[in-house]
Amino acid sequence: MRLLLSAAAVLLVAAAPPPPAPVEPVTDDYYGTKVTDDYRWMESGKDARWMPWLKAQADYTASVMGAIPGRAALFRDIQALTGDTTAVSSVRAAGGKVFVQKRDQGAEDPKLYLMGDGAPRVVFDPATFGGGDQAMDWWRPSPDGRLVALGLSKRGSEASVLRVLDVASGKLLPDAIPGTDYAVISWLPDSSGLAYLAFVGEQGTPTYYVNSEMRLHRLGATGKDMVLIPRDKPPFPLTPEQMAFLSFDDRSPYAMAAVQDGRRESIVYVAPTADVLAGKAQWKLVGDFDQRIEQGGLVGDKVWVVSTKDEPNGRLLVTSAAKPDLKTAQTIAIPGEAPKSGLWNTAWGGWLQTVEGRSSGLWRVGSDGSASKVALPFVGDASVLSTDHKDGS
Length: 393
Fold this sequence. Notes:
By secondary structure, the protein is mainly β. It is built from four helices and 26 strands.
């Protein structure tokens, strides 16, 4: 080990260093606090100096690392151990189908597979789109399982453009919406369109995330999409830095809006879906930041939330969507004192995830207030959970 480190140190001294990065200070004023960034120019993909400088850095690193004794053999061993495994990173159910994001053995990038509809088949491979330089950042199937919203971006940019995949044909629809980096979308209950969070500032600058807009896109429509939560006349208090997320649910006549600003908790509102789509929603407050709502969802005309106010491990509360009031909300008792970490609502109630040491617990909670623990196939941390909108399984 000492010999290896010594050889690497000699190489670092002997190798010609890459060109230094130009320093061009740019100062921003954040509400009275000035912050200077010496390398803001790097955030612009249009700067002619960027790629040559980046390539010089990469060449220098490759020359130094490649000359370390034994590195090539070690790299081959790592590839053999990791590349020979299949990695599943996400599973979602919709319309009686199961969609799986999976990186196949020996592959570099994951593909989107359809399961439960005959033999497993690839429904989208990002390597076959856009000349092979596209990455699949995120995806969400429609409630009926016929369509999948995809976030595609040029490799390394993470600047997602929302596209829609027709599952049956494997083709992308003409719809293309930029500025959808964070996968904040919600399909309409009839799968005819979706709500999405759009970033409206300049990509690569601090203003990119300011005054984000929740919009509605009808598939096939052209022109400007409807803004569901206007910034010029917001229906509830909303600062430029806060984001308002909106979600629809085909199991409820109501829609839910959650305001976030970086905290774990959200401010939660509800309104009838029909009023939201008509642009005349009167949003009703379920709970503000003081109520410490960390999870939430809709079941019919009820709002389900997990609140950590006065209970660090969380309480599961159910209240009316027409007249929400957490002070008089029903508390559904979950045996034990395990922290509540996830809530997935269904037509009959919901699945509640708990943290039990280094493993997860899963509870089936009914609208009648019943709660029963589900026996999992083995002890572990459940990180991928999805419910089918049709039956909640």
